[in-house]
Write a structure and sequence with these properties.
Number of domains: 2
Strand content: under 5%
GO molecular function, one term: molybdate ion transmembrane transporter activity
Protein name: Molybdate transporter 1
Keywords: Membrane, Transmembrane, Transmembrane helix
Pfam families: MFS_MOT1
Largest sheet: 2 strands, antiparallel
Structural class: mainly alpha
Shape: globular
Strand order of the largest sheet: 1-2
InterPro entries: MOT1/MOT2
């Protein structure tokens, strides 16, 4: 039974907090690994007001917990923050960027464009965005937070030894889930920061918040909107709205999932209000939701608690907290971010099971075992199609560090065949997986391979240009194991076809044992072997965590090859 109205949501929040208050408090702190470093960096540059950021993000935390009933995070807008830190934006410039993005999201929400956009995105692409966002968190935490640490540097409270200890403790909590990992780690880090601040005579002091207005000038509007705001819009739309809604439905099915429009209005309202008072531009994020869920949050009470804490601290201490928060150990924050990223990566495991919305909604040909339902009886080719498109989305997102590139390339491949991303009953319920040959085993050409009215003997000559190289392979003008069967008159652009290789696994065999792509035919057609490299015998594979780990290893190895993490 779903919890949907305000009274039921309030009752759910109170009941959950009363019965599991330790887990809820621990979960509320799970997203601080992303929030604190960006907020502190912007406050140190005097780009935003730390007190205004804490107060308004706290208010937004409380409101989202009350109205949505899920641990929906309030995170920094990362694309805007990155540009603002690199170019030392003024208060007015970053406010203009946040207000511009908020106005655009408000327009998309009110006109229905956001809802339409979310409905046309295939589930494999959404899963790819989620997995890619998780891997991006892991890579960023490893490369920017943990890699600069020494064994005993930069201080006794922040070094690799503490990072290793935090990792060991994290593994321990995977077995004993009731241990409040985030609460313990945050308390330890805060104690370390207090000790160092005391030694440096830089403790926070009592200081009441004094509100002020930020009115951007004409030049600030231009720079903020064009240089930072435009790049944030696709990231906010895909990761902070669409991916969040789907992730909330996967993780918390008992609470009614907020609508796309509701989340869009929430993001718009936060920035159209807070940015005028010097607060940091914020949004919701799938990584933050996964983090808070991973560390124990199951209801809106967790973010209500966090919001109240932010509100009190921001009102009474404000800017004096900068020195204390700067001394919070990055080793502990980095491990928390990695744990959040891995939790987000794990949602990709349900792509070909009833955990995927398009499969669960079909209701056709369900198969299962004694433990759980596997899902519709998809053919092996259909499973590989879905898995490969998700992996390509992940590879492009991680390789180019841009959600929009991953989305556009993968979504474009699915538009020519709607039955690919949304399996129909005819394609799922009548197939026997045990009799379905794996690609590239022998498979005769059928009516669907050549289009209406064409058989293997009547097909046009140009349709057989690849038979000399791969006579057994169904005709396909795309990368991957028969990703989309489409007219050969519409060729795949070479850059799109080569994107998985360029973005993810292009590194010399002599240096890294990463599965190489297979080249088929006279044109370059790439087969991303990550989706079934763990099974060299060619047997039917149900993608799982080992494939995600394989992909993660490939990404890290590619970065090491380029010196990205060295």
């Amino acid at each position: 039974m779903e919890i949907e109205n305000f009274r039921e949501i309030s009752s759910h929040n109170l009941r959950t907090f009363r019965n599991h208050y330790v887990s809820e408090i621990s979960g509320s702190l799970g997203d601080l690994g992303t929030f604190l470093p960006i907020a502190i960096a912007l406050a140190v540059n005097e780009t935003v007001s730390l007190s205004s950021t804490l107060i308004f993000s706290g208010i937004f935390n409380i409101l989202t917990g009350l109205f949505f009933g899920i641990p929906l995070p309030v995170q920094p807008m990362k694309a805007i923050a990155a540009v603002a830190i690199a170019r030392s934006f003024s208060n007015g410039t970053i406010a203009a960027a946040g207000i511009f993005v908020g106005a655009c999201i408000l327009f998309f929400s009110v006109t229905g464009l956001l809802h339409w956009f979310a409905n046309v995105i295939p589930i494999p692409v959404i899963k790819g965005i989620q997995v890619g966002a998780g891997l991006s968190l892991v890579i960023a935490a490893a490369g920017k937070t943990l890699a600069p640490l020494g064994w005993i540097q930069p201080s006794w409270a922040d070094n690799r030894l503490w990072a290793i200890a935090a990792f060991i403790f994290l593994i321990f909590t995977n077995v004993y889930r009731n241990v409040p990992y985030a609460l313990i780690v945050f308390t330890l880090g805060l104690a370390f920061a207090l000790v160092q601040s005391t030694l440096a005579a830089n403790l926070p002091s009592f200081e009441i918040w004094r509100p002020f207005l930020v009115i951007p000038g004409l030049s600030e509007w231009k720079v903020g909107a064009l240089d930072a705001g435009v790049g944030q819009i696709p990231l906010t739309t895909l990761n902070s709205i669409v991916a969040v809604v789907h992730l909330a439905g996967d993780l918390l099915p008992r609470v009614k999932t907020p609508s796309i429009t509701a989340i869009g209005l929430s993001v718009a309202g936060m920035n159209l209000v807070g940015c005028w008072f010097g607060a940091m531009p914020v949004c919701h994020g799938s990584g933050g939701l996964a983090a808070q869920y991973r560390f124990g949050a199951r209801s809106g009470s967790s973010v209500i608690f966090l919001g109240a804490l932010k509100l009190v601290i921001g009102v009474f201490f404000g800017e004096t907290l900068v020195g204390l928060l700067k001394r919070f150990p990055s080793a502990l924050l980095g491990v928390m971010v990695i744990a959040a990223g891995l939790e987000l990566v794990s949602v990709g495991e349900s792509l070909n099971t009833t955990g995927a919305r398009d499969i669960a909604g079909s209701g056709q040909g369900l198969i299962g075992d004694s433990e759980h339902e596997i899902g519709p009886m998809l053919s092996d080719i259909e499973r590989k199609r879905r898995w490969t498109v998700m992996m390509v989305t992940v590879g492009l997102l991680v390789g180019f560090k841009n959600d929009a590139i991953g989305f556009v390339a993968a979504y474009w491949t699915t538009t020519t065949n709607p039955t690919y991303s949304h399996p129909s009953p005819s394609s799922t319920s009548s197939l026997d997986p045990s009799q379905t040959p794996d690609w590239p085993s022998a498979q005769p050409y059928t009516h669907s391979d050549h289009g209406p009215g064409r058989g293997p003997d009547t097909a046009a000559p140009h349709r057989h240009r690849n038979r000399r190289a791969a006579p057994h392979m169904p005709l396909c003008t795309h990368w991957g194991p028969d990703i989309v069967r489409r007219s050969p008159h519409r060729r795949t652009p070479p850059l799109i076809a080569a994107a998985p290789l360029i973005a993810l696994i292009f590194c010399p065999r002599r240096r890294h044992p990463i599965p190489r792509p297979r080249i088929v035919g006279r044109r370059t057609r790439l087969v991303v072997q990550l989706c079934y490299a763990a099974d060299p015998a060619g047997k039917r594979v149900r993608p799982g965590r080992q494939h995600l780990l394989l992909l993660a290893g490939a990404v890290v190895a590619a970065l090491l090859n380029d010196g990205g993490l060295a």
